[in-house]
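From: lab user (bench 3)
To: helpdesk
Subject: output format question, protein + magnesium ion

Hello, I'm new to running complex predictions and I'm not sure whether the block I got back is the full result or only part of it. Here's what I submitted:
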Amino acid sequence: MKLKKYTILVADDEEDVRILLKEVLEEENYTVITATNGQKAVDAVNNNHPDCVLLDVRMPVMDGMEAFLKIREIAPELPVIFLTAYGSSDLAIKAMKKGAYDYLTKPFDIDELKIKVKKAIELKELSANSDNRPHSRYRQDEIIGESSKMQEVYKSIGLVADSDATVLIRGESGTGKELVAKAIYLHSNRKNKPFIVVNCAAIPENLLESELFGHEKGAFTDAVARHIGKFEQAGNGTIFLDEIGDMSLYLQAKLLRVLQEKTFERVGGKETIVSHARILAATNRNLEELLKEGKFREDLYYRLNVVTISIPPLRERKEDIPLLVNHFVAKYSKKYNKVVQGVSDKVMRVFMDYDWPGNVRELENAIARGVIITSGPLIMKEHLPPKLIERVKETGLVNKTEGNTPMDDEIVPLPEAIAKIEKEMIIKAIKKANGNKTKAAKMLGISRKSLFNKLRTYHIPLNNGS
Ligand SMILES: Nc1ncnc2c1ncn2[C@@H]1O[C@H](COP(=O)(O)OP(=O)(O)OP(=O)(O)O)[C@@H](O)[C@H]1O
Ligand SMILES: [Mg+2]
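Helpdesk reply: Thanks, we reran it on our side. This is the complete output you should expect:
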């Protein structure tokens, strides 16, 4: 059996680095090609189709970051590993947020280098054989956003994740507080222990107490058996107290004791229980205001406020909107089995102009709705929620004389039109071949494997036509 030989592109302006990496990687049986600057790296990706790229950040003519963005356009699934000088973690974080696969700091740890390259190629092969749609690299619960304000948030998450510190997450409704809580948990050394979420606003006060701290049998009329509360369920994992601003003063006192002494009693119980859970809390309320009104305990406030992460509202980081739109379009077209590719330019203009009182959640809902309603490859202005359509009319952002037929809204980009035709041809061929995929592939003049890839891309059910 002949094993596939993979090609690695090494782009670095220093000859020594190129020679070293070439030697090391050839030993591992890779084919190695090299480039001396960013422009040449982009050309090499175009001409040689490497399976992995090692890209220096600082290079003449075109630096690594610029080259990376170009490479991403040419080959979105191609793993790129950045080479950075030690200490330039800012650049590394930036590259990672832009979707780089990984980074290595100079001087290199050769073993680490080999492992990272091997893993990157494995992952690429895996994703080539599975759902291969644009932006599928985003995981379900990944925080999307590259604005400098979000970079600050990532930095804070990184700083606090591994400590046991209580973290207060603040931000308007829909800004992603729960997502940030989850990210802290996932990056902490408690990530293999439970993550328990309690929404303090959704549960009536008397129930919330036993929900959090549990109760003994007979503690109240309905307490027919002992109940173990969330603090106990969390063990030495993480408990996320959402909407903590809505907690009653009585429960605030009980919570304060957990924070200070790590102890509590079940409702109706005498036994003192020790909690080892890490506490994360979130609120969209103005705690300072509540403090003044006597609705929030000052001591609890100071206790919680030691480490605070504030998530900026979406209207203060509008440059993240296009990324979020892509992310949600991919998410919901997958979920609802559609081949929607994006939003029309006009819709994007409306999005950029709107002030998003409901923040990311509102945007997400608008996209989910649009993906469901649209029958074409794009979400058009008529697929927007009424509130946003109103907005379009008010601002005259989209002028009203442009005609009413749906196609007038936009010319469908060529790739999408081609995709549509391709999909129809495939369905036709499979029908004609009575569901026989080998025959259908032959009729279409493509390989069986590539037919299967396309079936997946276009979400054509495998039993189609049979
Ligand atoms: N930066 C982001 N990237 C991707 N998805 C996001 C982002 N921010 C928020 N979301 C999504 O928006 C929705 C709302 O987020 P989340 O529930 O974390 O907000 P919240 O701040 O807790 O809101 P609330 O105060 O209303 O509870 C979720 O579906 C979440 O996945
Ligand atoms: Mg929330």
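A quick orientation on your result: Residues 295 and 448 are 67 Å apart (CA to CA). Let us know if anything else is unclear.
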